[in-house]
Amino acid sequence: MDKIVFIAGLGALFAGLLWWSRRLPGERWQIAAAIPVGESHGGRWRGVNLTFYGMFTANAVLLAAALMLIMLGSLGISPFQVMVVMLPLISLSAPAARLVARWVEHKPATLTVAGAGFAAILLAPWLTLLARACLDREAAQALQVTPVLAALVICYTLGEGLGRLACLSFGCCYGRALVACPDWVQTVFKHWHLVFSGETKKISYEAGLDGLAVVPVQMLTLVVNGAAGLVSLYLYLNGAFTGALWLCLIAGGLWRAVSETLRADYRGGGRLSAYQIMALMGIAYGILISLVFPVVTAGAAPSLALGLDTLWSPAVVLSLQGLWTVSLIYSGTSRVTAASIEFHVVRERI
């Protein structure tokens, strides 16, 4: 019962955010703060923008990291053992978000979560095996490849779904204009579409689609990834690790491949984009890994209470706060927008 309540709570969170997310395409929800960094001319200051993109991305990373601790903690794996796998994994896969985008889209200031996710899926099994070799025998037995990979894929899927709020706020990962879509697509999204506003939104300066109705790809991803991730999470917490992995891999990967056809931003050349190829390869690779490293049924079933208890530690809380802060700065410091700031005294309030 506790597992159903936990997942229902997460589902309610996703549903509430889906309802609220229709505000994010507005101009108001792009820049969260502007920090002065140097004097300009005429008494003004040059500013660096911190974006809501970074804030929503940091929230998604925080949720994914907390869920990873809970899921692996439910198997009796300590936070330290989780960190032995996750710290090198994050260190190696996070730069792929920028490197893959630069390779595919030829833009130096662009990020793609697909690149980081694909790198993480590739590396996770081998880093898990390396961690098993470094830990004592009892800890190594609990740290199995397939449950770790399943937890990672589920957390990534839910994190990507939540992270689409960031895309809505910045105007990236945008869908095709309805007027350029087939009639059946226009009919489906006639009453459920998005309209972005603001000259600094990516959809505006890159494609000139601000003010036009576009396919709500970001919201669709929030729905599909959220549903797939939550169902897979339920399977995981009930001990069906391989089923949870396969469901999440297939649903998330196929949706990534399909959703690319609904997007209008540049995804690279070729009939299949690099992101579609990575999604399909990720499905095959993950299934293969689960067959090569099957789950050894040993020990008790996952305990949600035990997993939640892993968060009840000052070290874990501080680590999560640090991860949120680093994610905010890394993804939220805008390189494609700037600010000109002017300060003045409100004489009437002196």
Notable traits:
globular; transferase; 350 residues; two-stranded antiparallel sheet; phosphatidylglycerol-prolipoprotein diacylglyceryl transferase activity; 3-stranded antiparallel β-sheet; mainly alpha; 62% helix; Prolipoprotein diacylglyceryl transferase; transmembrane helix
Q: Can you offer a commentary on this structure?
A:
The protein has 350 residues and is mostly helical. It has one domain (2-342). 62% of the residues lie in helices and 7% in strands. It contains 14 helices and five strands. The strands form two sheets. It has a three-stranded antiparallel beta sheet with strand order 1-2-5. A hairpin with a 4-residue loop joins strand 1 and strand 2 (44-51). The longest helix has 26 residues, at 145-170. The relative contact order is 0.18.
Total number of β-strand segments?
5
| N→C terminal distance | 59 Å
Fraction of residues in helix: 55-70%
Low-confidence spans: none
Number of domains: 1
Anisotropy-based shape? globular
Per DSSP, the total helix count is 14
Q: Can you give the mean pLDDT?
A: 90
Structural class: mainly alpha
The largest sheet is: 3 strands, antiparallel
Q: How do the strands line up in the largest sheet?
A: 1-2-5
Radius of gyration: 21 Å
Order of SSEs: HEEHHHHHHHEHEHHHHHE
**Strand fraction:** 5-15%
Keywords: Cell membrane, Membrane, Transferase, Transmembrane, Transmembrane helix
Organism: Desulfoferula mesophila
Protein name: Prolipoprotein diacylglyceryl transferase
Transmembrane segments: 6-21, 50-72, 78-97, 109-127, 139-159, 211-234, 240-258, 279-305, 311-330
